[in-house]
Amino acid sequence: MNRYIPLFFKKTSRSLVFVALVSVLGACGKQETSSSALNETLAPGDGIRLLNGVSYDSDHAVFDDFVGGVDYSRWSIGDGAWGSGNGGVVPANVGYTDDGVLVLRGNGLHYTGDDIKGVGTLKDGRNTGAVLISKFLTGPGHYETKMKLLPRQGACTALWTFANRSTSSGVNDNHEIDIELPGGKKSGVISFKNVLNTNYVTESYNQSQDVNLADAFASDNPICLNDGAWHTFGFDWYTNPEQIVYFVDGKVSAVSSIFVPTLQTRLWLGNWFPNNAGFVGTSDFETDYMYVDWVKYLPFDQSQKFEEYTPTVSVQTSAEQDYPTTPMAYPSVNKVSNGDFEYVKNHDLTGYGWNYSRLSNETQNVSDVCFAKRSIGHDASCGAYIKDGGYLSQNIDSVYQGFRYHFSFNAQGVNQGGKVVVNFINAYTTKALKSVVYNVTSTDWQNYESDLEAPVDAYAIRLEAYASKGNALCLDDVILEKK
């Protein structure tokens, strides 16, 4: 069988270390797969390792650390859409930093910028992600990436292989292996404490394992993969024995021995917006980012057979002139959607992250007691006005125990002013686990700020601003940054 796979290495120090590593691994043995490997199965929580008798084909390994950007010769950048209710994946959301980190932007339903346009059913930039697709073909082997997840619900951060061909029966022969985050769809609580590990043969036959990592790793502490730290994700794909071993940070998260693909394929990496709240939640955020340090693929030796196939790329891809050419700075992220209220310049005065309401004992129209307006904010900018029982709120998802934030806002009181409150809540009740209250009483604009830490069982933050009858507050520049 022809096992030719293009060899790509970047001539950087990290890549040279990688070459040495795979050479050592490949030298560990070229023997045929032993009979013991046929019955060998790793279990969740085990350290990741090769099955007995299987070795690496180090001559055809692929490693990319993205120093200098995205290489047109090895990667396609997605510029198309699949599914409905999203803006697809676009090259404008792809960038890289001076130190060789791939930056993949995601824009949620609260995005109001004018610099990104969608290519799917949404054309205004909302629910747009970013994806790289390998131009090199891959087969059974070790797949791994080191990344920081896009840390909000509604965006699916994923590493996957995909090959799909039609058959005479009309049923698509779909061969796919997926690592997808956040997980939690099985329990109905979408969470970055879970990871989805799924493999397909055809579009109907699959095994999807929704893994809580604290359970899989027998950990007494919650494992939250959107904590802002670097994590490694990957899988080992075997065809002899048929087995896929998924792993996170070097430990096995799940193992599948059914519906194991056999078609040669391509590697995909990025984030996209499924428009399925039961799958990964709802994208109730403005903009956030996924970061990739490196990607590697180590093919296995010839004991691991596969069917040669050249899969088509199922989305449009960008022209070379649309690839990023200059490095970018690491962006700062405000977890509060449209915290400056500037969207009122070009959009409807409600929504885009904020919920305008009133307290239960208030009878005036909501639009009279809680609204955004031009020229009432700090320094005569756009801002929010809450008076006479008006109530302004916003929820920020995927906040977990121990996460630390810096919170700040500008506000001005009228008469006795009002209150701004940060509530930490869990997934099962709206009652606050912990509340931090800021009393806004000064009739001059003042800045309020403090550091916050999420308590045990935290799942989200609910921001509130309200004023009682005869009082009011102006609010602007609301910022929540993760530390």
Set out the fold topology.
Layout: H1 13-26, H2 35-38, E1 62-64, E2 75-77, E3 94-96, E4 102-107, E5 130-134, E6 141-148, E7 156-165, E8 173-181, E9 194-201, E10 205-212, H3 213-216, E11 231-239, E12 242-248, E13 251-256, E14 266-272, H4 277-280, E15 287-299, E16 355-358, H5 366-369, E17 370-373, E18 383-387, E19 390-397, E20 404-414, E21 418-425, E22 434-440, E23 446-453, E24 460-466, E25 472-482
Antiparallel strand pairs: 1-15, 2-5, 3-4, 4-15, 5-14, 6-11, 6-15, 7-8, 7-14, 8-9, 9-10, 11-12, 12-13, 16-19, 17-18, 18-25, 19-24, 20-23, 20-25, 21-22, 21-24
Short key terms for the protein model shown above:
2 domains; 37% strand; eight-stranded antiparallel β-sheet; seven-stranded antiparallel β-sheet; Jelly Rolls; mainly beta; 483 residues; single chain; 25 strands; disordered N terminus
Could you explain the architecture of this structure?
The protein has 483 residues and is mainly β. Strand 12 and strand 13 form a beta hairpin. The chain has five helices and 25 strands. The protein has two domains: 13-322, Sandwich (Jelly Rolls), CATH 2.60.120; 342-482, Galactose-binding domain-like (Jelly Rolls). The strands form four sheets. Strands 1, 3, 4, 6, 11, 12, 13 and 15 form an eight-stranded antiparallel β-sheet that branches. The protein has a seven-stranded antiparallel β-sheet with strand order 2-5-14-7-8-9-10. The chain has a five-stranded antiparallel β-sheet with strand order 16-19-24-21-22. Residues 1-9, 13-17 and 23-35 have low confidence and may be disordered. It is elongated, with a radius of gyration of 25 Å. Helices cover 6% and strands 37% of the residues.
